[in-house]
Design a protein that fits this description.
By secondary structure, this protein is an all-alpha fold. It is built from 11 helices and 2 strands; from the N terminus they run H-H-H-H-E-E-H-H-H-H-H-H-H.
Length: about 325
């Protein structure tokens, strides 16, 4: 073989060896491209998952019910109720303290005040007896009246009068007039007929519900009163009323209106308690209690000492007038 042939053969062998290498490079490029495509597909899948999660969250939020319009009012009512309860507790606590201190004040100092009133009356009477002046006599009578107060109207006229005035029998006795016996009522035949018809129709035992029974009982009470007076005209009116049936129920308030009404009532109740607390604080006993809230007994002892000194001074004055 010549040198030229040998070179040609070598070149062919090199070309054949290069082809697999080129094929390997092409396979590697294809693999890289496939990997890139897979990564892009994964990224797209991840983005799709994120969108699906967001959509699911939006759907869940849309399914959650919106807050009712009355929810804020209900919270306001609950807060106002709790605040009112605490305020009532504070006012009632102070009221009990005032009552207890008033009772203790009366038990411990009451006899001293009574003694002072008695001494003032005696002093005024001694002065009036000495001077004979009408003005001194009037002052003495007033001082004695404070010691011996007049009985109340209910004590003077117990069993003789009520809120409408004297009973007819009492008025007759006080004016020396004969006491007339009560007039006997004889219902007419028509009144008796109306009464029986109404009693049969409206008897409470015919009711099947408690509310209806209450309505019938109230109606029959009015029927009985009209029949007892023999009032035929009123019995006719009652018959027409029963025939017309019960009054239609009024449309109730809405939940929001109920809550607003509750808030208004709570505010009014708070105002009323504020007035009660103010009256307690401005009362004589309340003012005294505020002077020594931590040691009211010491305050009573101090007042007792002052009253004892006043009693001693009054006794000395009376002794001087009588001596």
């Amino acid at each position: 073989m010549t040198a030229a042939e040998t070179a040609e053969t070598a070149a062919e062998s090199a070309g054949e060896a290069q082809r697999p290498a080129e094929e390997g490079v092409e396979s590697a490029d294809e693999a890289v491209a496939a990997a890139d495509e897979a990564e892009a597909a994964a990224e797209e899948a991840e983005a799709g998952a994120d969108e699906a999660v967001a959509a699911a969250e939006e759907a869940a939020a849309a399914e959650e019910p919106a807050e009712r319009p009355e929810a804020r009012l209900e919270r306001a009512v609950r807060a106002a109720e709790q605040a009112l309860i605490e305020y009532e507790i504070a006012v009632e606590t102070f009221r009990v303290e005032v009552d207890n201190f008033s009772r203790l004040h009366h038990q411990k100092l009451g006899p001293m005040y009574t003694r002072l009133d008695e001494l003032d009356a005696r002093i005024a009477e001694a002065v009036a007896a000495r001077t004979g002046d009408p003005e001194d006599i009037r002052k003495a009578d007033e001082a004695r009246a404070r010691v011996m107060p007049m009985p109340g109207v209910e004590e003077l006229f117990h069993g003789w009068m009520d809120g409408d005035g004297l009973f007819p029998e009492a008025a007759a006795m006080l004016t020396d007039q004969p006491v007339r016996p009560p007039q006997r009522v004889r219902p007419s035949d028509e009144a008796r007929k109306l009464y029986r018809e109404l009693a049969r129709k409206a008897h409470p035992d015919l009711a099947q519900e408690e509310a209806e029974r209450a309505r019938r009982e109230e109606f029959i009470t009015r029927v009985n009163a009209a029949y007892a007076r023999g009032d035929e005209a009123l019995l006719r009116e009652l018959a027409e009323e029963w025939a017309a049936g019960p009054a239609p129920k009024e449309q109730g308030p809405t939940p929001s209106e109920d809550l607003y009404a509750r808030l208004e009532w709570l505010a009014q109740r708070k105002e009323m308690l504020t007035l009660v607390a103010k009256d307690l604080e401005e009362s004589a006993i309340g003012a005294m209690l505020r002077l020594a809230p931590d040691d009211p007994d010491r305050l009573l002892d101090e007042i007792a000492e002052q009253l004892l000194a006043q009693v001693a001074a009054r006794e000395a004055e009376l002794a001087g007038l009588l001596g």
